């Protein structure tokens, strides 16, 4: 019998394969990690050192592990799952933690789809040259904060989250935005005082970060 905040047990344990990013950054794989932690879905990890990533990428393409040559990858038994938002949505359905309502799931998808553009822009800023960093810091961050504040104000159906599982836990869209806000803070494109100017996003960030397993992981990553 399941209890509050307890997903259905999966037949296989997901293995999250991602790059070991510096300074506690999460990236796309970190979003999947936060989703799994928040929803109490057991998983294992295989983190690839950044210096070894080009070799692994070539191997993934050559051996057909992922023809796109991207991570994260989640290995689930004989299934190889790619594309982090699709991974979270699939695992939510498999573990029985989707909202159970098509419209509430749609809200998660709506924000997760829009998030992809912000994530791509952050990657360009965080790992690009000085011009890319400056453009992202000066032109992109404030625009994206206003956009997602507006989306949360319009669509969220919970005090802090877009929508939740039957157990009251946030899902893939919320995980994506939490992880990206956190990455912006770590990479010094955003400080938490500025985030307070956006009350919906600020509440999301604080409440998601206070989820017990998420808070525990973040604390360990900071040490």
From TrEMBL:
Residues 16-99 form the GST N-terminal domain. Residues 101-223 form the GST C-terminal domain. This is Glutathione S-transferase. GO terms for molecular function: glutathione transferase activity. The lineage of its organism: Eukaryota, Sar, Stramenopiles, Bigyra, Labyrinthulomycetes. It comes from the Eukaryota. Coiled coil: none annotated. GO terms for biological process: glutathione metabolic process. InterPro entries: Glutathione-S-Trfase_C-like, Glutathione-S-Trfase_C_sf, Glutathione_S-Trfase_N, GST_C, GST_superfamily, Thioredoxin-like_sf.
